[in-house]
Amino acid sequence: MAKKIVGYIKLEIPAGKANPSPPVGPALGQRGLNIMEFCKAFNAATQSVDPGTPTPVVITAYADRTFSFVTKTPPASFFIKQAAKLQKGSSTPGKGTVGSVSMDQLREIAEKKMPDLNANDVDAACRMLVGSARSMGIQVTE
To answer: How far is it, in rounded angstroms, from Cα 58 to Cα 75?
Structure first.
């Protein structure tokens, strides 16, 4: 029989840098999960990713105080900022641009993010990323 699921915890943690301080500690602690066990497992799972890359993770908490987790691909905004070589997006999107990305760069990002995007094909994923880039004040060039 399958274990009884108590709940899901969604966090965004820098790759390889999970530690018991907030937000990880309190989120896991209130469910009674072993915080250090998660930190070690997460850091081991994200070893291959560049350290510090924001990595979304969904932790499934079970009634017997065990857990399992699934890591997702980094957010689209992270990849778009990286492609445009920016630290952050525009503070006033729509009133000017702070950088630009090409459609080829967006296509690469779409291929990386495809498992986590709600899109049927890469073209649809590209259109989603164009919207994300525009809302960050980044111009999309052909």
So the answer is: 14
Q: What is the pLDDT of residue 48?
A: 81
Q: Residue with structure tokens 């498992």?
A: 115
Helix or strand (DSSP H, E) at 43: helix 35-45
Q: pLDDT digits over 89-133, tens only? A: 677 766 767 777 777 888 888 787 777 777 778 778 888 888 888
- Closest Cα to residue 5, out of 63, 75, 49, 84? 63
pTM: 0.75
Determine the Cα–Cα distance for residues 94 and 137; give it in Å rounded to an integer.
6
Rounded Cα distance between 139 and 130, Å, is 9
Residue-range domains of the chain with CATH: 3-69 (3.30.1550.10), 74-138 (1.10.10.250)
Residues 10, 23 contacting (CB under 8 angstroms): no
